[in-house]
Amino acid sequence: MSVLVVGSVALDSVETPFGKADAVIGGSGTFFSASASHLAPVQLVGVVGDDYPLAQLDALKQRGVDMAGLEQAKGESFRWRGRYRHDLNSAETLETRLGVFSHFSPKIPAQFRSAPFVFLANIDPRLQLDVLRQVQRPKLVACDTMNFWIESRRPDIVELIKHVDLITLNDGEARQLTDCANLVKAARWIMERGPKMVIIKKGEHGAFLFKGRSIFFAPAYPLEEVFDPTGAGDSFAGGFMGYLARTGDLSDANLRRAVVYGSAMGSFAVEKFSVQRLLEITPADIATRVAEFRQLVAFEEELPA
Ligand code: AMP
């Protein structure tokens, strides 16, 4: 089954303790597609300006990402500039230039409207709502957001979450959106307002899946070197949604497996700048990493005699 993603297709300039990248391809839609396309067919909707190095997206096309919904408009592409200091868990946004995104009105191509899985990646929540008006009863709709939108468009996010099955947020964003310091309470606050499920990501400390009263936790893969955390969240979402779309199974056991696939894909994204590592990996790399996750959390219960 296919996954439709609507998100930013950006040029990122990133500074980490290990190096700098200037105007490399990024964006929530781009990272999501690079990740999910390892598991399921992906349909991408977004906009770029006339300054975008479109040829660099060819690698995504070769991975089977359908770009029929990617518009090119007159003007500057979305640009994000961020910095990570030694705490690689939180990005400091230095600049966000919406460019062509400020006049964007997503048009979902007719052939994408019946996608069974829909991911509203991090963009203006008004655009996320607009997309929901154009799709036909998907099996699962999930969304993401970030501090930038929580600060400027909180009422739209509260409206959006009434209409989604699942939201992914990092811990800081969950606290900011709900005003609850405790993450279990924050998840509860969100589930009372629409979504049946909430995923709260805690960077190198793993991710929680909340569904009703049940809570599942997966650690983050303990990488020896995290090079650039940009895109980890979107790649997590790509692994999670891609796995669900591949299996078409929304049982509790499968949702848990999907969280592990999300964690595995997020761990690849941070090994290099931009989508570089996501474009190199093979199905065998993914299988090995998922097996390592199993090893990481496996133990045998033994009661002392
Ligand atoms: P993450 O997965 O959370 O690290 O997201 C990183 C990506 O989000 C970067 O590639 C940015 O281009 C993109 N991004 C940053 N700010 C925004 C924003 N306000 N709206 C949409 N996308 C953004």
How many discrete structural domains? 1
Largest sheet: 9 strands, mixed
Mean pLDDT: 96
CATH architectural grouping: 3-Layer(aba) Sandwich
Which structural category fits the helices and strands?
alpha/beta
CATH topology: UDP-N-acetylmuramoyl-L-alanine:D-glutamate ligase
User: How are the strands of the biggest sheet laid out side by side?
Assistant: 5-4-1-8-9-10-11-12-13
As a percent range, the share of strand residues is: 15-25%
CATH class equals Alpha Beta
Q: Cα distance, first to last residue? A: 50 Å
Number of strands: 13
Helix/strand order: EEEHEHEEEEHEHHEHHEEEHHHH
Question: Judging from the principal axes of the Cα atoms, what is the shape?
Answer: globular
**Helicity level:** 25-40%
Question: What Rg, in angstroms, do the CA atoms define?
Answer: 18 Å
Count of DSSP-assigned helices: 11
CATH homologous group name: Ribokinase
Bound molecules: adenosine monophosphate
Q: Outline the low-pLDDT stretches.
A: none
Task: Please describe what this structure looks like.
The protein is an alpha/beta fold and 305 residues long. The chain has one domain (3-297): 3-Layer(aba) Sandwich (UDP-N-acetylmuramoyl-L-alanine:D-glutamate ligase), CATH 3.40.1190.20. 35% of the residues lie in helices and 24% in strands. The chain has helices spanning 28-36, 58-62, 125-132, 147-152, 154-161, 171-178, 183-191, 232-247, 252-269, 276-280, 283-297; strands spanning 3-6, 10-16, 19-26, 42-48, 66-72, 78-83, 92-97, 117-120, 140-144, 166-170, 197-201, 207-211, 214-218. A nine-stranded mixed sheet has the order 5-4-1-8-9-10-11-12-13, with helices on both faces. A four-stranded mixed sheet has the order 3-2-6-7. Strand 12 and strand 13 (214-218) form a beta hairpin. The model has no long low-confidence stretch (mean pLDDT 96). Adenosine monophosphate (AMP) is lined by residues 8, 10, 12, 26-28, 31, 80, 96, 122-123, 146, 148, 230-234.
